[in-house]
């Protein structure tokens, strides 16, 4: 004897699946009404097990449609472009953007973000000071710092605008390239002795990162 099932059970499953695709209703993108209505017309109908496969396929089609309609995550480059006119919010962000500008402005965006992450990882580590400016200005850590001061920054340059954008992305954790334990890096054309005691994490552009 065919087992009787209710399509409303599958409707509930589809609703649960759709809700897991998006965090907020406004982020989902709209699913065309004819597709949804066509499926929900069957929600209260009783069907036998021979029709279950057909209805399950319809449910999967709805989920796939919603997934393909949802906004795609922005790339790192897109975020930098969008934040290109941002200003530094405070001295801490200025110090982070300065580290990016002087240490990595010739590097790819991913490499600039990685340098910012090293600074922020040090702030979070008990091995280093607990604020960004103190980390960046710590003696014998970043060679561009002289007597606790930064060289002049060309704040009209594209490099500075990009550094400010990357610093904001790093602080808000909108993207991530390295593990939280990555605290050191050096250029690939030097071979500092201290690297031998560390684990190589990654190489991005000209910089090799360690944890």
Q: What's the SSE blueprint?
A:
Elements: E1 4-6, H1 7-21, H2 33-40, E2 46-48, H3 52-69, H4 76-82, H5 91-104, H6 109-124, H7 132-136, H8 158-172, E3 184-187, E4 200-204, E5 207-210
Antiparallel strand pairs: 1-2, 3-5, 4-5
Helix pairs in contact: 1-3, 4-8, 5-6, 5-8, 6-8
Notes on the structure:
This protein is 46% helix and 9% strand. A hairpin with a 2-residue loop joins β4 (200-204) and β5 (207-210). The longest helix has 18 residues, at 52-69. The strands form 2 sheets. The chain has a 3-stranded antiparallel β-sheet, with helices on one face. The protein has a two-stranded antiparallel ribbon with strand order 1-2. The protein starts with a strand and ends with a strand. With 211 residues, the protein is mainly alpha-helical. It has helices at 7-21, 33-40, 52-69, 76-82, 91-104, 109-124, 132-136, 158-172; strands at 4-6, 46-48, 184-187, 200-204, 207-210. The protein contains 8 helices and 5 strands, in the order βααβααααααβββ. Residues 1-8, 10-14 and 16-47 have low confidence and may be disordered.
